Amino acid sequence: MDLALLLELSINGAFVGMMYSLVAAGIVLIYKTSGIANLAQGALAMMGAYFAWAATALVGLPAWAAIPLSLVAMFAVGALIERFALRQMIGQPIIMAIMLTMGMEIVLRGLLPGVFGTAVKKIDIGIPNAPLFVGDLLLNRTLLIGGAVSFALVLAAIFFFNSRLGIVMRAVSDDQTASWSVGVRVERAIAIAWGLSAVMATTAGILWGATQGVDWSLSLLLIKALAIAILGGLDSIPGVLIAGVVVGLVESLATGIIDPLIGGGTRDVAASVIILATLLIRPHGLFGREHIERV
Amino acid sequence: MFYRRAGISHTSYRQERQLWPLPFDRRLALFVLALTILAPLLVDRLYLVGYLMPWVIWSTATLGLNFLMGGAGQIHLGYGAIIAIGAYSSVHLVRAGTPFEIAIVAGGLASALIGSIFGAAALRVKGLYLAMATLAMQSIVDFVITQVPAISGGGQASLPVPTATFFGIAIVGDLRSYYFALAVCLIVTFFMLNVRRASFGRALAAVREKDYAASILGVNTFRFKLVAFWVSSFIGGVVGAVLAFCYYRAVSPDQFHLDLSIQIVAMAIVGGVGSVLGSFFGAALILFAPILLNQAVGQAAEMFGLAISADLRAHLPLMLYGGMIVGFLLWEPLGLAKIYDNVRNYFLVWPFRHARH
Description:
The structure holds two protein chains of two kinds. By secondary structure, chain A is mainly α.
């Protein structure tokens, strides 16, 4: 195997992984505060991308206005989902809450392509399409910018957990009842977490939309994001970054090396293999806290 | 009124413990059974093949999943893959010349084996992680089936299913297929009705409620969870064989994708997790509601001259059953079975509001 090709695959894979990790960071954020995995995260990314597309193509806003607008709108959507659906699930078995997010995923996956049409939409956010040549490596400019933006956002999330609101959220994730009793507004913290993770999903959705176009397949980001979140540890934001790069690399190298041998399809199964392997070897992930259960 | 309890006094433990203590329930069950058996005489062929047969098969699948979700409290998002394993292995065995009677059991065993291997891996973790593990299983099985030409019959091809002969009776035509599917469904139903009354079902209930507490009480949690996976996957595998031989008659990988898994999970939730009756209700609602809605929307569009795009109509079923999952979880987490139970409880003491206990 050609070394340059390998390097090219690795670099592109690392940046793709970075973009996946933005979706995963949203899952981790929600898991950290409320202890459930949001299976609608991919669908939220898709919804955000459709929003941005509708704002630019249907309303006619320029990209610099459409993107903040869709971020704000999706923050509201995330917070509303928490308020009107997830809050009803408090006290129910965790499985119920997970199934609820799965139900929402299905609804969104039907609703948005149903309303806006299934044809692939193009979002133009002003990134030129021409590839970037570094030496004799061929790099995708959208991926580079997307990866960098994602990296910055996940870093911001790490710092966010040291702010006042972040400390509130850590308290909530530690023990909801205890935080309640010292005056932390638990519901508000969880609602904000949902809003923020919808914002992260939207950013990821727009970046992916710029790369591959907007259609229902954006919701498939969920599987990759889950693989990253599980590999990194469901309650570790720094883990997301490292696991994101790992998943991106594995996926890209598997596609480059194994696909020619067996004829395609490895890209989609790589994430699943990573999920299963993590659960077998180290169920709480690379950086996650081990869960101790009491009767 | 209908479910009359007056004058029913049990004089032995046997009577007290029977499946349906009220005569009305017994008669209702017999009546429904008679209806399903006489259905080919009562309804048109088209309805038999288009509605009743999928209902019977999908109900069986839902029962199998419900055994795991309701009985043992384990979530499974890869039941479609389990069904696929059963379908493919039984079809391949019959094509290789194995008698169908053996192939259908072997299909179940293959599913049970692979299902419990993944289950054993997944059972170290629970709840949310289990959901992920089974999700991963679904895509890995999909991948293997699509990528190995020896299994899928090569490329995107579909594998033709040979005619099966069950103890000398060839399963050809709608009528025999329907009765075969019904027979399998009845066996699974009887198993499900009775398993919770046996020690096995009680152990599973303990595991479901709180596995740590159960293991302190001396229930081997891991073993029972694994056996639950085994049984549920076995049923799934047999359903796969029934699906292939009685309904599809040509199997291709896309029949068993994640969509099927989600559909069956939706049936279990909408019908009522852990309820035998609910599995039948849920399968009926999830299968038929999209069809009815589509017809209604089509008619409405014609009547009011609305232009409803083909994309929207194609996605209506998805919205509907996603919406039903969300709606039921929010407002009636125990599903249609609970609604039936409420109605039954109302009529149990009608015309009074409640009984004196």
